Amino acid sequence: MKKIVFVCTGNICRSAMAHQYLQTKVKQLGIENDFLIDSCGIYASTGEQSTRYAIEVMKNYDVNMLSHRAKNIYDLDLKDYDMILCMTEEHKRVLASIFPDLYTKIYTLKEYNQLSSSDKDIKDPWGYDLKTYQECAKEIVDNVDQLLNKLKDV
Question: CB of 71 within 8 A of CB of 40?
Answer without folding.
Answer: yes
